[in-house]
Amino acid sequence: MKKSLSDRVTASYGRMTINDLRGITRKSSAEILEDIATVNGENPAFEGRRVSPVQSRSYLKSRGYKFPFKSVAFINLKGGVGKTVSAITLSTRAQQLGFQTALLDLDSQASSTLALDCRVSDDNLFFMDTWEDPAGLPEALVQVREGLFLLPSSLYNGMLDTVLNTPNRQKKAVSGSLMSLQNNKYDLAVIDCPPSLGTAVISTIAAVDTVVIPVTSDAFALHGLELTLGEIKAICSSFGVKKPQIKILFTKFDKRETLSSKTYEFLIMKYPKMLIPDPIPISTQFSKALDQNASIFETPGQYPAKKQYDLFIRNLLGLKEIL
Length: 323
Ligand SMILES: Nc1ncnc2c1ncn2[C@@H]1O[C@H](COP(=O)(O)OP(=O)(O)OP(=O)(O)O)[C@@H](O)[C@H]1O
Ligand SMILES: [Mg+2]
Hints:
Elements: E1 3-4, E2 16-17, H1 18-25, H2 29-40, E3 50-51, H3 53-62, E4 70-74, H4 83-97, E5 101-105, H5 111-115, H6 127-130, H7 137-140, E6 142-145, E7 148-151, H8 160-163, H9 167-183, E8 188-192, H10 199-205, E9 210-215, H11 219-239, E10 245-250, H12 258-270, H13 285-291, H14 304-316
Parallel strand pairs: 1-6, 4-8, 4-9, 5-7, 5-8, 9-10
Antiparallel strand pairs: 2-3, 6-7
Helix pairs in contact: 2-3, 9-10
The structure holds adenosine-5'-triphosphate and magnesium ion.
């Protein structure tokens, strides 16, 4: 039985406003309302001008979007660069857009699990329990929003290195889990990784179609980037799997700091194809949102960091081209 947290999740958390859709479609609010009413046979205005994930999904489908299955992992062996924040931000935004989304928390520190206020008990199953028989994964997922399901984590996942101890197990653990999600009609799998290159991260690299490496202007974060890139190449070649698409996401960008600008220049010169051109600015809104167990897309306000994540996510999900 899927466990639901719906009593602790307000309906507005999982819903976009008409204004959010306006940003995507460049249509007027009235036109969007009319479109949605035509597609869904109901008017989102009755829900405080918020669009439900179901309404958004059928709207996007009516515009030709096919919701192809996608898997995205956030990896950098340096801590504190924004892996968890990015994973939560992507998951909650995708859920609002109508993607059936699964967020797999593979970090034994369980930051995503805590951030989404998922209080685990003895009944919960973790990746340690599901990797070997991924057919059981959907049953282990906890519903945290309408259309957003979380595989929680705990310190128990710290044992993964002892069980994912052969190349064959590493190759199959995450890829089997993704296949199970795809078979169960999920559109998007998001993986929040620990700040290491342990076996769970190796397994993730061998399985996902996109790896996003968040970096900051910190020298260690850049070193983490180099090591992660080297590791991706080595793992994919030794496992004989296709290399994932790699994207570098510059987070906590502070335009007042020379170091931020210098790092940006370095990254754009060295990794012109991998670097996402618009960095995510530093903002206090992330910690404010986390304080409410929410993402920045679930708390009010328009500011540059939100705009840049929105752009990044639309590009990542292939929504920019069709809307
Ligand atoms: N753009 C940003 N502006 C300001 N603060 C941010 C930004 N992105 C993330 N943070 C903050 O930085 C801290 C670290 O972020 P996060 O937990 O996402 O990093 P992480 O890479 O997952 O760390 P770890 O490797 O320890 O899991 C958090 O307090 C988060 O709120
Ligand atoms: Mg984290």
